[in-house]
Amino acid sequence: MAHPSRSRFADASAAREAVERSLPLIEPALRDTAVSGLGVLHLVVLDPGLTPADCPYAEAVLHEHSIGQRALWDVDYAAYAHAKALLAWRHGCDSRRVLAAPHRLAEHDRLVWGGVWLDGIVVAASGAMPAWDEAFSLAVAGQLRAIAYERARAARPLE
Asked: Reduced to 3 states, what is the DSSP secondary structure of residue 1?
């Protein structure tokens, strides 16, 4: 059964669409070794309708997407993306901002950034340099917000 607080307009299909719309920006950038040494990236998108008070983290994951050859991964970039998303989700701000306030960190938190919190939308990326992880996360979050706005507009009855 679907969680009653799940986002109506930013669901899993919207998250997939947001990632797909962002790929023309992300994929060419990953070919630049100054952006990503291995040309890989893992993205995680959370449900903006859910908060840590509503459910465990795993239930909030809407969509994941890997770019590049996973066989090239030298670390578990999916695990890092999830760690960044969890930080942003739990604190309601970009993971970079949480790291700038070390008194907010818990013992188990990973000291990594690249996840964003945009109006409740959490997206995290791992595989590129941290600033680029954050930029790619923000691109996907912006797309998801626009998709949700358009879906909400389309759902309004004609007046």
From this structure: coil
